[in-house]
């Protein structure tokens, strides 16, 4: 994980076969411009996302979901992070997630959901604020 002098490390992932990645690629680009170190990956199973969190020692994992299945993805991700001892990793989400499902996911411990129309700067500021409080 990053220290005060290291860049914030973020893993952005599109799980399963969800190919709608235009938005998350834009977010990745903006995060890099803001000085974050961003790892982006498509088509991972939830277990592979957890392994990437461990392998890359990231501070934040962001899941972009636009093709359904998001409840199972977030539930499995949070369980996998807990099992791996990384349940304090900041988890955020984005994409097309219905409001009722957003509330469920937030109730499970995901820190924020950034839906369509959200600008990347909102996510960047939220991450910086959250990590500043927990560092």
Give a structural overview.
- By secondary structure, this protein is an alpha/beta fold.
- The protein has one domain: Rossmann fold (3-Layer(aba) Sandwich).
- Helices cover 46% and strands 22% of the residues.
- The chain contains five helices and five strands; from the N terminus they run E-H-E-H-E-H-E-H-E-H.
- The protein has helices spanning 22-33, 46-56, 70-83, 99-108, 120-134, and strands at 9-15, 37-44, 60-65, 90-95, 112-114.
- The chain has a five-stranded parallel beta sheet, sandwiched between helices.
- Helix 3 links the parallel strand 3 (60-65) and strand 4.
- Helix 2 crosses helix 3 (70-83) and helix 3 packs parallel to helix 4.
- The longest helix is centred in the C-terminal third of the chain and has 15 residues, at 120-134.
- It is globular, with a radius of gyration of 13 Å.
- It starts with 8 loop residues before the first strand and ends with a helix.
Summarize the structure.
This protein is α/β, with parallel strands linked by helices.
